[in-house]
Design brief:
Chain A: One of its GO terms (biological process) is rRNA processing. The complex is a heterodimer of chains A (197) and B (281). In chain A, 42% of the residues lie in helices and 20% in strands. Chain A is α+β, with helices and mostly antiparallel strands. In chain A, β6 and β7 form a beta hairpin. The longest helix of chain A has 32 residues. The radius of gyration of chain A is 17 Å and the shape is globular. Chain A starts with a helix and ends with a helix. Chain B is built from six helices and twelve strands. The mean pLDDT of chain B is 90. Classes of the chains: A alpha+beta (197), B alpha+beta (281).
Chain lengths: 197, 281
């Protein structure tokens, strides 16, 4: 048991990646990813991003179902278990990112990758991407989107609060721009992992 | 094979292909256009034992809403607010897909959706439900029971809830200073102050590209995704519910918004007619 823990730690140190300093245009917080840190499941990932349950599960499940090529694995059950280690806001988006990375790590065939982005609108209409828990609580509206990697189409959306049509389009555009950053990070961390092993 | 027997067989064996043939001609098997809603009817105040009630029919989909007002202690973190507790009940009565017992996933999701709509739209100021801060407040139990599930349950439930809330009459309550008991005056009743009128419009996505409004149960089953938009009278959105499914572009989303705004006008007009025709008590 101890040996395997040590090996795991070693693997974690080697395969863990951290995103570099953020670009001026993107306002997502710092995030990091570790893969293959649990030995028993077929694939696992932890997604650390920045510092209502059945419905959240359903949203994540439906998003995964939309991208996973289930027809290639008939009579198979794919269980995605998400354990929240800490919640510093934008929880659903973080869960979606972790789910996607874990599916990739497990080698499940998918038609696209997906990522989650949260947008908050405060009382004077200022847009904030990837809000902290405090910002979410004080915001007038919080919108969470799941976007696919191929055409940045909207796969899933769940919103809280009141907002106008134009604000929705602005948030969606901002989320689509931010998703580029997330997908680039996926690519880099996967490249780094597979170039070492 | 005679033509009609072939159609029935084809519909059973290849339902998606059968639907595609209609969608190519921009219509659906029941004769509706892609952006057309089913006949909507609403009946208000038919349940005498409830404080407010309504019955909404969207084609064959039938939802009944009964609201009971009871006393309760206000929450400790918000002593000047009351509660609104919605519950959607999907029983085997309305469709073969449901079993009796604890609420299944669809019922739980629908209940959560209605709770979110109430919260986001601020349809009622919860402060209006408070009788005595920290001590007594109204609790509105909203029971939405589906009598027939033929698709688009969310739109029907939202409409039923709105109509029932408009029908609710609460008696006047005074707190007797000496005995500290609540005295209810059943002869003096007043309507709730409904601040906004949220209306839900649901769409089904077919083959990742085509959007149809007000899906029937069969269409929901064949669809590759669903979307529900809830708007208020100013065109503001209080809910954009897209639980996974095929992706949509920003432009398609814009089309859905426009349809939702038109639908809001249709529903508001229907509700105004119904309430105007009711005799004041």
């Amino acid at each position: 048991m101890e040996e395997s823990m040590q090996i795991e730690t070693k693997v974690r140190a080697e395969s863990g990646t951290e995103s570099g300093p953020r670009g001026a245009s993107c306002t997502l917080r710092h995030f990091a990813c570790e893969q293959n840190l649990l030995s028993r499941p077929d694939g696992s990932a932890s997604f650390l991003q920045g510092v209502a349950e059945k419905s959240r599960e359903r949203l994540i499940r439906n998003t995964c179902e939309a991208v996973v090529l289930g027809a290639l694995h008939p009579r198979t059950s794919i269980t995605v278990v998400l354990q929240v280690i800490s919640d510093a806001g934008s929880l659903l988006a973080c869960c979606l990112n972790a789910a996607c990375m874990a599916l990739v790590d497990a080698g499940v065939p998918m038609r696209a990758l997906f990522c989650g982005v949260t947008c908050a609108l405060d009382s004077d209409g200022t847009l904030m991407l990837d809000p902290t828990a405090k910002q979410e609580k004080e915001a007038r509206a919080v919108l969470t989107f799941a976007l696919d990697s191929v055409e940045r189409k909207l796969l899933m959306s769940t919103t809280k609060g009141l907002y106008s049509d134009t604000e929705l389009q602005q948030c969606l555009a901002a989320a689509q721009a931010a998703s580029q950053h997330v997908f680039r990070f996926y690519r880099e961390s996967l490249q780094r992992r597979y170039s070492k092993s | 094979l005679p033509c009609h027997i072939f159609n029935v067989c084809f519909r059973t064996v290849e339902p998606l292909e059968y639907y595609r043939r209609f969608l190519k001609e921009n219509c659906r098997p029941d004769g509706r256009e892609l952006g057309e809603f089913r006949t909507t009817t609403v009946n208000v105040g038919s349940i005498g034992t409830a404080d407010g009630s309504s019955l909404v029919k969207l084609g064959n989909t039938t939802v009944i809403c009964g609201i009971k007002a009871e006393f309760g202690a206000p929450p400790t973190d918000a002593p000047d607010k009351g509660y609104i507790v919605p519950n959607v009940d999907l029983s085997p009565l309305c469709s073969w897909r449901f079993r009796s017992g604890p609420p299944g996933e669809e019922a739980q999701v629908a209940s959560q959706f209605i709770a979110d709509v109430i919260e986001n739209s601020q349809i009622i100021q919860k402060e209006d439900l408070c009788i005595s801060p920290g001590k007594l407040a109204w609790v509105l139990y909203c029971d939405l029971i589906c009598l027939n599930h033929d698709g688009n349950i969310l739109d029907a439930c939202t409409f039923a809830l709105l109509a029932a809330l408009k029908n609710v009459q609460l008696p006047e309550v005074n707190i007797n200073e000496e005995t500290a008991l609540a005295e209810v005056n059943l002869k003096k009743k007043s309507y709730l102050n409904i601040r906004t009128h949220p209306v839900a419009t649901s769409f089904a996505v077919f083959d990742d590209t085509l959007l149809i409004v007000d899906p029937t149960e069969e269409e929901e089953h064949l669809a590759t995704g669903t979307l529900t938009v809830v708007t208020d009278e100013e065109g503001k959105l209080c809910c954009l519910h897209k639980p996974g499914g095929s992706g949509l572009t920003g432009a398609k989303l814009q089309d859905c918004m426009s349809r939702a705004v038109t639908r809001h006008k249709e529903v508001k007009k229907l509700m105004d007619e119904v309430f105007k025709s009711m005799k004041p008590k």
